[in-house]
Specification:
alpha/beta, five-stranded mixed β-sheet, 13 helices, 44% helix
C-alpha cells in the first residue's frame, strides 16, 4: 500500500484560492513521490492484537511443564523385600524408555511415607501400605493407584476357633518390629477390639521367622504376619501344626472394611495353601490393605503415565489372592488420586506418547501447549486485523463526507455572497486535507470519488450565487388518505 504526499524538503507557495472557480492558479505543484505505509494506523490496529498474542503466549508458557526429568528417585523397602524386588522391576522397565530410576532402600511403608511427606528428602515416588495416613501428611502426596494387596494373617494357638479378635485379650501377641507398617496396622486392629499395650495383653516386637518360631514353641499365643513375612511356605508350616489356626473374619469382615476404609475383604479358598492336604479345609475370610504407589504432587505427567504402565507390567499378573489385570487400579482410600492418574485410567496415554519415542513425545506435547492457544488467536486475527485496518483508513474518508454533507445542508438554505464565499473556503479546506493527508494507495479510488463530490458541491454553491436566489424549499409530499 502506498500514497502520494508533497516533498517535505521543498517549500510551497501560499495557496491563492479562486473562490468562484474553485481552484488555485498560483499554487506551485509539488513533486510527488511514493510514501511508506501509513504506519500510525497500522500500529494502532496491529499493536493490540500483538499484545494479546504475547499475553496468550506468556500464559501458555506459564502453564506448560518443563521437559520430564531423565532421573527419578524411588523409596522402596528393605533389601530382599517385595517392595525392593518390585522397585528393581520398575527400574528395568523405565530404563527401556531412557529414564533412570534410583532406588533408595528403607525400612518399609512408614519410612517411605515420611520421606515423601518431607520436602527436604530427595524422593519422587514410593510404595506405602494402607492404614498409615495419620502418621504422615496426606496433603503432600498423591496416589497413582493401588498396586497389590497385603493380606493380614492372624495365626493363633487355641483348641477351638475364635469368633472375635477381642478373645485374644490377655494373650501374648507378636505384632512386628517397631516402626513397621505391619505393626501399625496390627495395633490399629487390636485397639479396635479393646487390646492395647500396657493392658492385660503382652505385645511382642517379633516378625517373620522369629514370630513363627515363637508361636510354634509356645512363646507367643498369636502372631500377625503381613507382606514378606506371610510366604506360602511359612503359612504351610504353621497350618500343618494341628494346634495353630488362621483367624477367620467371616463373622465381622464387613464390619472391618466399613470401619477402616483402606481395608478390602477377600476369601482364601479351600486348599489354596496345600491342595494335597486340603489346607485350609474351608474358605476363610481375610482383610487386606492395599499398597499404593505414592508420588510428590509435582511429578511430571509423562512420568506418571510411564509409572502406571510399569505397574501394569509388574503387578498385573494373577496371584493367590488377586486376579489377572486387577492391579493397578484407581482405588482412592486415604490419598487423593492424581489428576494425571485419573486421566490415564480413563483414556490411557496421549497420542504422542503412544506412538512416538518418549523424548520426542515430550517435545511434541509441550509444543502443543504453546501452539494451540496461539493458533486459536492467529487464525481469526489474520482475518480481523486487515478489516480493522481498512475500517480505520476508511474512517478518514467518511469523516470528510460528514463535513461535506454539513456544508451542503447550509448551502441549501438562504445564504449571502459572504456566506457562500466562506462555504467555498471551508470546502477548499476539506479538499486540501483530502489531498495532503497520508493514505494508502489501495483507497485512491475513494479519494478521487470524494474529490468529485467536493467539486459537485462547489458547483452547486457557485450556481446558487449566480442565480442570486434561494433554492426552492423542500416540501414533503402529502400523505394519501
Amino acid at each position: 500500500m502506498c500514497c502520494f504526499r508533497p516533498d517535505e524538503g521543498r517549500r510551497e507557495e501560499p495557496l491563492q484560492q479562486n473562490v468562484a472557480a474553485g481552484y488555485a492558479p498560483n499554487m506551485v505543484l509539488p513533486r510527488l513521490r511514493i510514501s511508506r505505509i501509513y504506519w500510525r494506523d497500522l500500529l494502532v490496529t496491529v499493536l493490540p492484537f500483538v499484545l494479546v498474542v504475547v499475553a496468550a503466549f506468556w500464559i501458555a508458557l506459564h502453564y506448560v511443564r518443563p521437559a520430564p526429568p531423565k532421573t527419578i528417585v524411588m523409596t522402596s523397602g528393605a533389601p530382599g523385600s517385595s517392595f525392593q524386588n518390585s522397585a528393581e522391576k520398575y527400574r528395568a522397565i523405565l530404563a527401556r524408555q531412557g529414564v533412570t530410576l534410583k532406588i533408595l532402600p528403607s525400612q518399609g511403608s512408614l519410612e517411605n511415607l515420611r520421606r515423601l511427606s518431607d520436602p527436604k528428602v530427595d524422593v519422587d515416588i514410593g510404595f506405602v501400605q494402607g492404614g498409615l495416613s495419620t502418621l504422615g501428611d496426606p496433603s503432600k502426596v498423591m496416589s497413582l493407584g493401588s498396586v497389590f494387596y497385603v493380606p493380614v494373617f492372624l495365626f493363633y494357638r487355641a483348641p477351638k476357633p475364635l469368633r472375635l479378635m477381642s478373645e485374644l485379650d490377655g494373650k501374648r501377641i507378636a505384632i512386628g518390629r517397631e516402626g513397621s507398617g505391619a505393626r501399625v496396622l496390627a495395633e490399629t486392629l487390636l485397639k479396635a477390639n479393646g487390646i492395647e499395650a500396657g493392658g492385660r495383653s503382652k505385645l511382642l516386637d517379633l516378625e517373620g521367622q522369629a514370630a513363627e518360631d515363637a508361636l510354634l514353641k509356645g512363646e507367643a499365643d498369636a502372631i500377625f504376619l503381613m507382606g514378606d513375612s506371610a510366604t506360602r511356605e511359612s503359612m504351610r508350616d504353621l497350618l500343618h501344626n494341628i494346634s495353630v489356626r488362621l483367624y477367620d473374619l467371616n463373622e465381622q469382615g464387613d464390619g472391618y472394611v466399613r470401619r477402616f476404609r483402606y481395608l478390602t475383604k477377600m476369601d482364601l479358598p479351600t486348599g489354596a495353601i496345600d491342595l494335597g492336604k486340603n489346607i485350609p479345609s474351608e474358605t476363610l475370610t481375610l482383610v487386606a490393605p492395599t499398597v499404593e504407589l505414592l508420588a510428590r504432587p509435582d511429578l511430571h505427567p509423562a512420568l506418571s503415565d510411564m509409572l502406571i504402565e510399569a505397574a501394569r507390567e509388574v503387578h498385573g499378573r494373577a496371584t493367590l489372592l488377586q486376579k489377572a489385570g486387577e492391579f493397578p487400579t484407581p482405588l482412592e482410600h486415604e490419598y487423593r488420586l492424581s489428576e494425571d492418574a485419573v486421566r490415564y485410567y480413563k483414556s490411557g496415554k496421549s497420542f504422542a506418547y503412544k506412538h512416538l519415542p518418549f523424548w520426542l513425545a515430550s517435545l511434541v506435547d509441550r509444543a502443543l501447549v504453546l501452539i494451540v492457544p496461539l493458533a486459536v488467536l492467529l487464525i481469526p486475527g489474520l482475518k480481523v486485523v486487515p478489516l480493522l485496518y481498512r475500517w480505520r483508513i476508511n474512517a478518514r474518508i467518511y469523516k470528510r463526507y460528514g463535513e461535506l454533507m454539513a456544508l451542503e445542508r447550509i448551502a441549501f438554505g438562504k445564504t449571502t455572497s459572504e456566506q457562500r464565499a466562506e462555504l467555498l473556503e471551508r470546502l477548499a479546506d476539506i479538499e486540501r486535507r483530502v489531498i495532503t493527508v497520508k493514505l494508502p494507495g489501495s483507497i485512491a479510488d475513494q479519494v478521487y470519488v470524494l474529490r468529485q463530490h467536493i467539486q459537485f458541491v462547489r458547483n452547486q454553491i457557485v450556481q446558487t450565487g449566480s442565480v442570486a436566489q434561494a433554492p426552492t424549499p423542500f416540501v414533503a409530499p402529502a400523505k394519501r388518505a
